[in-house]
Amino acid sequence: MELGYLLRVLGRRMPVTDGVLRVNGVQGPVGIRRDRFGVPYVSAATDADAWFGLGFCHGQDRAFQLESLIRVIRGTLSELIGPEGVPIDRLSRRMGLRVRAEEQLAVLPAEIRENVEAYARGVDAGIRIGCERPAHEFVLLRAEPSTMEAADVVGMFELMSFLLASNWDRELARYRVLTLDGPDALRSVDVTYPEWHPVSIPPHPAAGSVADRLAEDVAAFRAVLGEGGGSNAWAVSSDKTATGRPLLANDPHLAPTLPPHWYLVHLRTPVWAAAGASFVGVPAIPVGHNGFCAWGVTAGLVDNTDLFLEEVGPDGRSVRQGDGFVPCRVREEVIRVKGSDPVVETVLETPRGPIVGPALDAAAISMKATWLEPTGYVGLLGIHKARSWDEFRAMFDPWPGLPLNLVYADRDGHIGWQLVGDAPIRLKGAGALPIPGADAGWEDRRVPFEEMPHTVDPDEGYVASANNRPIPADEPPFLGVDWIEGYRYMRICEALAGRDDWTVDGFLRLQTDLVSIPWREMRPHVLATAGDDPDTRTGLAILEAWDGVVSPHGPGPCVYELFVAELVGDLVRELAPRSAEWALGKGFNPLVPDTAYALVRTGWLVDLLRSGRVEESRVAAAVARAVRQARDRLGPDPSGWNWGDLRPLRLGHPLGRRRPLDKVFDLGPIRWGGDATTVSQAAVVHHSMDTPPPFIASLRTVIDVGNWSASRFVLPGGQSGNPASRHYRDQLDLWATGGGIPIAWEEDEIEARTVRTLRLVPRSPTG
Fold first, then answer.
1. Closest Cα partner for 1 from 98, 136, 170, 174?
2. In terms of C-beta distances under 8 Å and separation of at least 24 residues, what long-range contacts does 143-149 make, across chains too?
3. Mean of the per-residue pLDDT values for the chain?
C-alpha cells in the first residue's frame, strides 16, 4: 500500500485552519495563527481559554496519538486493537492509572484543575469540530474517537511517571540474574549494584515465573508507547557566549515514534506568554521560555518506584504482613476485547501498593510509587509563569510525578540546575531488586525538597545534565542506584569548558556531536593487543586510523561498535552463563527486545580493560570477530563498512507494525551515527546489533535568552500526525542535519510568519 492509494480511498482528512468555528467550552474568542511549519500561535483572554486552544490544536493534529494514550490510561486499548492490547490493559488496570488519576485530580489546586479541564475540552473540540472527518487511523481500525476527560489528562502524568521510572526493567533483569546465576554473578555483571544490598535474601521459590510474566506485561506496555533513553540539557552564563546573553539547550531522548511526542506552540494571554515544546496530552510547555526565563528537562532517574514480593493468602484476597495475613482492597476489572471474550482481572491492593504481577502459586509482585499517591502539585503546569529562579524551583515542591533535572537560564543572567521528584526514604533495601514485602516498605515522609541536589550560578559558568548520577554515591540523600553512564555528561562539560564564545549555531552542533570518550579511554589498551589472526590485524589497523567520531560513514565506527558488542557478550556469558542474555539487555517480550541493561555496558568494559582484567587474547579474538561480522553483513571491502548502514534509523508509527501500512506511516531508513555514549543519542543494543536505535533526540531546542526569536526548535518529523500533511515530515531533514526552526516571539514577527488564521468563538446557548 502506498500513500497515494490511501489518499484516493480515504481522502486527505486535513484539519480546519482558516475561518471561524463556533465551539463550546470557551469563555471568549481564541485566535490560532499558524506559520509555514504548522506551528500554532494561540492567543486568548484567559488562562483556561489559552489551554483550550492548545488542546484544540493537539486534537486537530494528533487525534490518534491522543486516542492511544487515553486508551492506555483507561485500560481500554483491547477494545480498539483486539487481544494484543490485553497485556497493556491488564497492567494499566492493575496499577489503576485512571483510578489514581481521578484521586489526583480531586486534590489539584483549583486554578490548575480549571486549566486541565479546559485543555481536555479543547482536545475534544479539536477532534470533533476542528477536523471535517476523523483521522485515517480511525477509519482503518473502524473506530470512533474517545471523549477526553480531565482525569485522562492527569493520567498522562501517571503514565509518563511509569514509562520513565528509572529501573523497572533493571530490577527484573537483576532478579533474573540472581535467580539463575546467584549473588556472585550479579555482583560481577551489574555495574551499579550496591554492595550494601542484601542479595543473600533467598528468592521466593515461586516468584521467578511471576517476575517473568510481569516483565512481559511491562515490555508490551512500552512497545506501544515507547520509553525514555535519557536526555541532554545544559545552559551557559553570559560570560561564555558571543552575545553576552545566556544560552540554553535541551534534547530529550525518547523512542523514534511518529508522530513525535512533542508539539511546538506559542501561547499568549494578557498576563503571560510562553513558547516552546508542549507534550501531547498535557497542558504544559515542559521545554521553552516565557520571555523572562528559559527551561529544559531531562529524566531525573530518582528511584521513586519499588517492587515487592508478596505472599498471597489462601483466600486469594490477602497478603502476608508479619506473622499473619492482612486483607487487601479488591477491584474487579472487566477488559473488553475486540473480536474476543472479555477478560476479568481481579486486582489486589496491598498495604504497599497494587499487585501488578499475577498471583501464581501464592506468589505475586506489588508496586509502590510516589506517583500513585494523590498529592496537590503545580510543577510543569505552572512554570510558564515563573519570574525568578526561586519561584521556578518552588513550583516543584512537591512533585510526585516523573523525576526531572530542570535546567534554567533567565534574562537577568542567572543559570541553574535542580533535581526534582519526591524521593522515598526506604525502611529496607536500596530499591535495586524486588524484595519480600511482608516486612519492607517506605517511611511516610520523603526526602526534603531543600536536600534535593541543585545549583545556581556556578563558578564554571555552565550547568549540565545527561541522566548522570547527580551526587557522589556516598553523599546523602540516597536517591537510587540506576543512572545512565556519564559519558554524554563528560563530553558536554568538556565542550562547554573549552569555549567562551558560544552561539546558537555552536549549541546546535554540540547537540549532534559524535565524539566517543569511551574509545579515547580504551584505545591504548585495545591497540596494544597483538594477534596473529589476519582479521585481528585488519581490525586493529582500522581502529588505529579512526578519529574516534562515531560517524555513520567509514569502517572505524563500524568495527568499534561490533568489537564492543563482541567483547561485552563474551565476558558476560562467562560471568553469568545461565542469565547472560538478560544481563546483556535482552527484553522479556519480542515486541521490546531490550532493557536498560543494554545501555550501561560500555563503562563496565572500559573499567575491565583499564584494570587489566581482560586477557589480550580475548581482546584480539573480539576484534577478529568484529571484522568478520562487518564482512559478512556489509561485504568484503572495508571502505563499504559504514556504521549507518549496519543499523539505520527508522521512525515508526503504531500502524506501521501492520504491513503494508508501514509504507504509508513510517519514515526512513536514515543513515545514522552515534551510540548511547555520544551527545547525539543513538543507543546500541549489544545483544542485537541489527536493532535500529531505540532512542533518539525526540526534540532539539536551543534558546537565546533575551533574543527569543533567534532560538531554534526541531522535531524528528513534524507537527502533524497525518501522513497526507506536509507537516508530517517537513522538519525531518532539518532535524537530521542539525538545523531548526524559529518560533516567533514579538507580535510583528508572528504576523509576518502567519499563513493560516482560525478564530474560535463561543457557541451561543441556543447552538
1. 136
2. 143/67, 143/80, 145/63, 145/67, 146/67, 146/70, 146/71, 146/74, 146/76, 148/55, 148/59, 148/66, 148/70, 148/120, 148/123, 148/124, 149/120
3. 90
Query: From CA 229, how far away is CA 255, in angstroms rounded?
Result: 8
Q: In this structure, what DSSP letter does residue 131 have?
A: B
* pLDDT surpassing 70 at residue 595: no
Closest CA to 741 of 765, 710, 696: 710
Torsions phi, psi of 31, nearest 5?
A: -95, 135
Hey, what CATH topology would domain 517-696 get? 1.10.1400
| Structural element, H or E, at residue 236 | strand 228-236
- Cβ 233 vs Cβ 419: under 8 Å: no
| Helix, strand or coil, per DSSP, at residue 568 | helix
Rounded to 5 degrees, what angle do the CA atoms 6, 7, 10 make?
Answer: 80
Q: Which region among 91-105, 222-236, 303-317, 521-535 has the lowest average model confidence (pLDDT)?
A: 222-236
Mean pLDDT of 389-404: 95
Using one digit for the tens of pLDDT, what is the confidence trace for 691-729?
889 889 999 999 999 999 999 999 999 999 999 999 999
Task: Give the DSSP per-residue string, 634-674.
Answer: H-S-GGG--HHHHS-EEEB-GGGGSTTTHHHH-EEEE----
- Measure the CA–CA gap between 532 and 621, rounded to whole angstroms: 10
541-555 pLDDT, tens digit each: 999 999 999 999 999
Contact predicate 144/95, CB 8 Å: no
* Domain spans of the chain, in order of start: 517-696
For 494, other C-beta atoms within 10 Å of its C-beta total: 12
H or E element, residue 132? none
What CA–CA distance (Å, rounded) separates 33 from 609? Answer: 57
Spatial contact of 88 and 301, defined as CB atoms under 8 Å apart: no
User: Which residues on adjacent β-strands are paired with residue 344?
Assistant: 334
Q: How many residues does the chain have?
A: 767
Residue 431 near residue 267, CB atoms below 8 Å: no
Q: 0.90 exceeded by the pTM?
A: yes
Paired residues of 21 in beta bridges: 760
Count of CB atoms situated within 10 Å of the CB of 532: 8
Phi, psi of 85 (to 5 degrees): -90, -10
| Cα separations in angstroms, 695 against 231, 399, 426 | 10, 26, 31
Residue 437's H or E segment, with its range, is none
Cα–Cα distances in Å, from 239 out to 125, 462, 501, 506, 701? 47, 10, 8, 15, 21
- 73 or 210: which leads in pLDDT: 73
Q: Which of 276, 249, 293, 303 is nearest to 387 (CA)?
A: 293
> Please, what is the angle between helix 555-575 and helix 517-527, to 10°?
80
- Say whether pLDDT at 263 is over 60: yes
CA distances to 181, 192, 484, 583 from 188, rounded to whole Å, are 11, 10, 18, 10
Q: Is-contact 63 35, C-beta < 8 A?
A: no
- How far apart CA 290 and CA 276 sit, in angstroms, is 9
> Residue for cell digits 526514604?
425
HSE-CB of 191 using CA atoms within 13 angstroms: 23
In eight-state DSSP terms, residue 754 is: -
Specify whether the CB–CB gap between 63 and 295 falls below 8 A: no
pLDDT: which is higher, 226 or 445: 445
* Largest separation between any pair of C-alpha atoms in the chain: 88
User: How many angstroms separate the Cα of 380 from the Cα of each of 119, 199, 291, 447?
Assistant: 14, 38, 17, 20
CA distances from 139 to 9, 145, 280, 337 (A): 11, 10, 22, 19
Of 397, 579, 605, 627, nearest in space to 487 by CA: 605
